[in-house]
């Protein structure tokens, strides 16, 4: 699953992070920890921080610097209206893709089952 999962996550990680931020504002480490809690253990912290820079540049989040007990202030990201619109679009696209992939999967499985049955009938 490794390489395939990595490639698929590249296309969906933005939507996943926006979904996490739709629940409540968070800083980078919190987002990474939540991803790990949800089973995305392979995602590097650096990948999340690079994504946060991109979604900030694209205007999907508001950023507030909050004092930290240890070290420099933390950047807390919260989803704004543009980010919520992007998340809505992500979920619509995700639904479209998953429906088509499931249809294809069931069609191919059904076809393979029919082919195996035909081969069994010929033996």
UniProtKB/TrEMBL annotation:
InterPro entries: Metal_resp_DNA-bind_regulator (IPR052509), Tscrpt_reg_PadR_N (IPR005149), WH-like_DNA-bd_sf (IPR036388), WH_DNA-bd_sf (IPR036390). It holds the Pfam family PadR. Coiled coil: none annotated. Residues 17-89 form the Transcription regulator PadR N-terminal domain. Gene3D superfamilies: Winged helix-like DNA-binding domain superfamily/Winged helix DNA-binding domain (1.10.10.10). This is PadR family transcriptional regulator PadR. It comes from Microbacterium resistens.
